[in-house]
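FAQ

Q: What does a record look like?
A: Structure on top, sequence underneath. For example:
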């Protein structure tokens, strides 16, 4: 299944974190959430122009997309995965518990060992400037209507139970995400295009909401009105 408004972006029945190659758009990894969380918290901070009181000409202007953050708690349980021996991860879960999926999540916020070695080699060779490692494009998928590029800003893992080899078999992962916009990525970046598609979809959904008729008794009569 793919997104209807950005061809090539995978959409799964469960929420997921998808890693894309920022240059080609190739899907590098899909980390599907084992259970869809019951709650998801979003915070939007408007980017207004008029920062100081009294700037009347700027009071209603927006200089860019709102800064939007998402917080979600993900629960993982190896026991449920082992009940389906035909599952794709059944063998690795039987041997390592939840370590494989936790390691995949860890790598969302860590450069690879190869990238670190390449940086060290560049430093040893006397490179004047060493560019930071570019990570894959991280995409948060939360239904067909919400597919957004994100940066992980907070990552907390609580391992709650272990097998006889001390492999975690139950865990909770708390994720803090910041949605990346065209201000962050630019209009020519694949992630920027993904954000614009998300913004257009948000506008389409907003158009489906029927506006209530304003009540004159509530709004009052504008100055100079009849």
């Amino acid at each position: 299944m793919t997104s209807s408004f950005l061809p090539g972006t995978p959409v799964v029945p469960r929420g997921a974190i998808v890693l894309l190659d920022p240059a080609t758009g190739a899907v590098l990894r899909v980390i599907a959430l084992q259970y869809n969380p019951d709650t998801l918290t979003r915070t939007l901070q408007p980017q207004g122009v008029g920062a100081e009181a009294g700037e009347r000409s700027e009071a209603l202007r927006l200089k860019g997309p709102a800064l939007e953050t998402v917080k979600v708690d993900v629960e993982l349980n190896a026991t449920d995965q082992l009940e389906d021996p035909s599952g794709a991860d059944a063998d690795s879960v039987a041997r390592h518990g939840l370590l494989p999926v936790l390691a995949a999540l860890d790598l969302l916020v860590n450069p690879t060992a190869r990238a670190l070695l390449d940086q060290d080699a560049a430093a040893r060779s006397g490179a004047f400037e060493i560019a930071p490692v570019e990570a894959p494009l991280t995409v948060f998928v939360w239904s067909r209507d919400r597919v957004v590029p994100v940066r992980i800003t907070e990552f907390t893992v609580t391992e709650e139970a272990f097998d006889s080899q001390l492999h975690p078999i139950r865990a909770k992962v708390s994720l803090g995400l910041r949605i990346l916009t065209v201000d962050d990525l630019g209009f020519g970046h694949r992630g920027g295009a993904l954000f614009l598609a998300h913004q257009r979809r948000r506008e389409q959904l907003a158009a489906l909401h029927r506006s209530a008729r304003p009540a004159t008794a509530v709004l009052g009569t504008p100055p100079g009105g009849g």
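Q: Is there anything notable about this one?
A: The two ends are 56 Å apart (CA to CA).
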